[in-house]
Structures are given as C-alpha cells and as structure tokens.
Amino acid sequence: MGALSSLISVILGIFTYFASLISPSFTAPVPEMKQDDFVPVMRFVATSDTHIQSLGDIGCRRISAMLKTVYAVSEADTDYKNLDAVVFSGDITDNGFIGSFMAFAAVTDNEIREGTERLAVVSKAHDSYALFNNSIKLFTGITGQETDFHRVIGGFHFIGISRSETLKHYTEEQVKWLDENIACAVQADPEKPVFVFQHEHVLDTVYGSSKTDGWGLDVFTEVLSKYPQVVHISGHSHFPANDPRAVWQGTFTAINDGGLAYFELAVDDKNGQFPEGKDRMSQALIIEVDADNRVLVKVLDVDEGKIMREFLIDNITDENKTAYSFEVRKENASAPVFSDGASLGYEKKGLKHYITVPQARVSEDNEVFLYRIFVVNEKGKTIHEDWAFSDYFYSDMPESITFDGFINFGKGLTVRVCAEDVWGNTSEYLEIKIR
User: How many domains are there within the chain?
Assistant: First the structure.
C-alpha cells in the first residue's frame, strides 16, 4: 500500500468514526406493503442525487435514514430478510470535493451491513465540478470500487456505467463495453431482468427525459433497445419517482429513482419548475424480484418512512411491452373528478383574492398533477390564469390547494378551476363568482 493510499485509509477511518457518532438514532418505521402475494428472492435499494457536501449534512442523514428503513423492511419480511445491494446512480456529491466523497464513503461504510453490497456510478455533473476528469480516480481511490461495473448479486446482473475520463459524457468504448456486458448477462439467463444503472435518463423514456424536460441522453439508446431484459435505473432530473410516468416501457424498461435532494418538474413543456417545499424531496426505490422474474418497485419517502407507490412489472422479457407504455396508460386513464358537493373556497385579504380547491380524485394508478385556474370577466374574457401543483409528490399530500393571491379591479368575475392528471386529462370545472 502506497503512502497516499495509507493516508486515505486513515482519513476515511476518522470520517467513519465520526459518522458513527452523528448518525441519526431512531427506530426505523416499517411501511405498509400492498403486494402480499409477492415473495422476493432478491432485494436492493436504488437512489441517486444525494448531493453530499460534508459529513453529517442532510444528504448523509437521508442515506442513514434510508438504510435504516430498508433494513427494517427487510427484517419484517417473513419470506426474505436480505438486503442484497444498495446502488447510487450519480450526483453523490454536490460539488465533487474530496471531503464530500469521504463523507459518502464514511456514512455508507457505517450504515451498510455485512451481506449488502455498495455500488455507485459517478456523474459528469455535480460529482465532477471540482476535479472534472479526475473524479473517477478520486472515487475509486477513496472507496476501492470500480465505477463501470458488472456484478452478479443473488443471481441477477447489475451493470453500472459512469462518466468517462474525457470531455464526453460517455465514449464509444463504453458503448461497446455496455453492449458486451448486457449480452453476457442475457446469455447467462435470458429470462431474468438485467439491471443497468446510469446517472442520466435515456432520452424520451421516463418523465424528465424528453428534450423539453431537459434531462435525457441518447448515447445508449441503440444498445439498450436490443435487450428487452434491461431495466434501466437513473436519476439526474429530480423528477418524482411516485409519478406514474416514472416507469416507462418500450423496447426495454426504464425507471426514475427520484433521488434524495429537492424536487424539480416540467409543466407545459417548460422544465425547471420547483414546487414550494422542494427540499423535502427524499425518495428511493426498494426493488425486489421474485422466482418468476417479476419486478416489484416500491417508492419510499425516506423522510416520512412511507411507501408512496408500487409498480409491479411482470413482462420484463416481452419484446413488445405495453403495460407501462405511456400511450396505453394515457389512453386508458380516466379524468380526475371532484367529490359530490365539492366547492371552491374564497378569501380576500387586502387587494388580493385567494382561491382554495379541494383535491380531486383519480384512479389508483394515476395522480392529479396540477390545478388550473381561470378568472373570467362579465364579457367572458379570461383576465387571469395560473396553475398550482397538487403536491402529489409528498406522502403527506394536503387535502386542499390554495392558489397564490391575485389582484383584480373588476366586478362580477367568475373563477373556474379544473384538475389535470399526469396524462393531461382534465376534470369538470368548479366555479365561484367574485362580486
């Protein structure tokens, strides 16, 4: 062991010691589960975008809380108690500083138990801000782990691909490497899912990956499309993992893991929409596979210790997958509806008018995305319009939403509000007159 490696080991040991002292101490909740007939043979947790800055910060605390909860979930399972792996899909740090990577290594070393493998990919984003191309060497030097990996865990193949050490996100050599490794995994057992981890979404797959959303890359699309067994897991966008659009199926399956640091969404083809309270974002995926190669994805609200949504994927190897295609789900989705007798609330404070709308209802596999408000004058002309999120991305979703106050100088105005689901279907309007 060289002098530098010895120094890194000593510093990491110190970080890990302090991580054990400041790790949150609490009894982890065991979230309620829905799929009682699902018996796992393998379980792992996937997340991303921890954005760690220093030891003991909110990113570290959420990693600690996530692992405590997932271990509690595992131990409560009467059929399968193992947590086989934990995978981080990039933006591990907020700035790529040495101390940030040290903090990640320390908190995971302290919290991950024997029998659980730690895997991670490094991004050409926040992980590379400080040392750019050297972020790969830094991560490997601190953790001892490769950043492009192919591991077999519990009989299932895990393949991860990190940023290149060039000016490109990924190189042609990495594209070839990924193709070869997926082919190897499929040849070993074509009936099993192959889990592929990358920081960025694949272009035009999950919500957050379109060109207008702004967070997708198409470098690996051709390769992934060759293998229906692929389950591609990514982060980067900070779009919510409990959104029905967080799972996509086409020639392969893609899943958005949500991440542990702040929400972002896209509305009306505009990305960069940050909801109030965005820093409450704390999502991870508990992913299980059963003996029939069905994949159960449980979206965990880490801060609240609650399962927000479950996706059961039982057609992994089908070449023509429709269960989670956007087209099929959009066609089959029914519009939101307000409860009988629902009405808008109204309050005036100074010159501003505030409208409160009760949450509409949707089917179990859908979500109310937002509410749209229109203020119409006596001539039928819209003089004000706005939208507000339903806050469906929080497990403690409120019972009503209040629009930011608006000013009007007219009389006899009518306020109309409709609910819109994630597929763009709209409800009937609730109306109230302002005199």
Answer: 2
